């Protein structure tokens, strides 16, 4: 098994790919919680 960092898939990337595949065009935050990791992934 190859443990190369390039083979790593992050949950955020899978989640964002799913949103794109499903045609999601808007994403809303939830006051009182933190969606910063998702927002940062969207920026990237």
TrEMBL record:
InterPro entries: THDP-binding. This is Thiamine pyrophosphate enzyme N-terminal TPP-binding domain-containing protein. It comes from marine metagenome.
